[in-house]
Amino acid sequence: MAQAKTEYGKVAAPRAFGGAGVSLQRLDMFKFLMVCMFLLTIVSVFHVWSRFKLIDLNLQIAESNRQLKEADQEQKRLKLEVASLRTPSRIETIAKNDLGMALPTEQQVIIVK
After folding, report:
1. pLDDT per residue of the chain (113 residues) written in tens, 0 to 9
2. At a CB cut-off of 8 Å and minimum separation 6, what does 102 contact?
3. What is the pTM of this model?
4. 77: phi > 0 → left, psi -120 to 50 → alpha, else beta; which?
5. Helix, strand, coil fractions of the chain, as percent rounded to 5
6. Which helix (H) or strand (E) holds 109?
7. Is the separation of the CB atoms in 22 and 15 below 8 Å?
8. Is the separation of the CB atoms in 101 and 95 below 8 Å?
C-alpha cells in the first residue's frame, strides 16, 4: 500500500479578532438588518390596519343593509295604511259621523250647462 502524502499548505489561517474590516462589516450588516426590521414593522402595521379597516367597513355595510331592509318594510306598511285610509267607505263614515255631512238631495243639486 502506498502512503498518501498530505499537504497542509492551503489551509486558511484564522483571522485576528478585532480587525477594522470585521467591525465595519458587522456595522453595515447591523444597519441593513435594522432597516429590514423597520420596513417589516411598517408593512405589518399597515397590514393589520387594512384588515381592521376592512372588517369595520364590512360591519358598516351590514348595518346599512339592515337599515335599508327596515326602511323597505316600513314603506310597505305605510303604503298599505294609506290604501286602507283612502277607501270610500271609510271616508263616507267619517264624513257622516264626525263632520255631520250627508248626501245631497235633488233640490240641493244644481246642474250647470
Report:
1. 556 665 556 666 566 555 566 688 889 999 999 999 999 999 999 999 999 999 999 999 999 999 999 999 999 999 999 999 999 989 999 999 999 898 888 888 888 88
2. 96
3. 0.54
4. alpha
5. 65, 0, 35
6. none
7. yes
8. yes
